[in-house]
Sequence to fold (294 residues):
Amino acid sequence: MPRNDKQVRLWVEGQLRAAGLKVTPQRYAVLDYLWSNRTHPTAEEIEAAVNQRFPCASRATVYNTLHALHEAGLVQELYGQGGVTRYDIKVEPHHHFICRRCGLIEDVKVERLSVKARLPLQSGHRVEELDVVIRGLCAKCRKIAEG
Amino acid sequence: MPRNDKQVRLWVEGQLRAAGLKVTPQRYAVLDYLWSNRTHPTAEEIEAAVNQRFPCASRATVYNTLHALHEAGLVQELYGQGGVTRYDIKVEPHHHFICRRCGLIEDVKVERLSVKARLPLQSGHRVEELDVVIRGLCAKCRKIAEG
DNA sequence: ATAACCGTTTAGACTTAATCTAATTTACGT
DNA sequence: ACGTAAATTAGATTAAGTCTAAACGGTTAT
Ligand SMILES: [Mn+2]
Ligand SMILES: [Mn+2]
Ligand SMILES: [Zn+2]
Ligand SMILES: [Zn+2]
Fold:
């Protein structure tokens, strides 16, 4: 796990190369942003952040990159209410709490959840991944709702 | 659990009234359709099905109804790849398997999965619901992919 | 039954996340 | 350096879902 800027650079480049992707400034910027911002940003937020200093990535490229990273298993896509996909770097597996009122998304460590699937399913499907979304009211919205 | 048409009619009407909703032909049609079609249809599919005989529900009404039923806890919304929400009547809790290749959505009985959340979360959030999505390749796509 | 109220329905315009396209640029192996 | 396949781009396009203001119709009270 990289600690300083140089290590992050090498890690990001290594991850891209390992996924068979050319290392472009755009891809670097997107993956570097996701590495240092675990806030489940939307594609639009990523585009804005990445283009803050020197505009360098078009919308199409941001989407292309995110899809490539997703297929490479480096990035998780979160589909939620509102039809806006959010993106999350996949450094270690974790689940999510989502507040139904304010939309807050919070990581939930796997240790706080015990999920055991009786696998493989009888149907012959191959299970690759288990996404758990805990829904409810965050502490803040709870206060408001409970009065 | 209703068995014949008349019982279904009474059940559907009762559910609507219990949710504080007026019983309109449009709402009846949507809920009745979801009762008898557990295929995770999209709003568009529901609209088409409901309007097959006598057009009676506009797009806005289909969405209004689905949202009302969702808020009443009668209908579950499934957000997935492609930004198209799918709807599922909530008769008994269950989870879902989704094939990443062909998009197949299959119910997974809760008995096949043991999910235990160490709750409540320390954060003070109120947990209301646990959605589990099992992702992978369905038997059919598995064969194609594995050659 | 009648009336009146307010929740519900409606068509169609509108918003916007995401995709598509075809021309241009660029990373990288040789 | 060069050549080529891969990647980027601006802008048009698609389509899921929302919004609006006018008309309608369940429900309840009389
Ligand atoms: Mn996360
Ligand atoms: Mn289901
Ligand atoms: Zn909240
Ligand atoms: Zn499949």
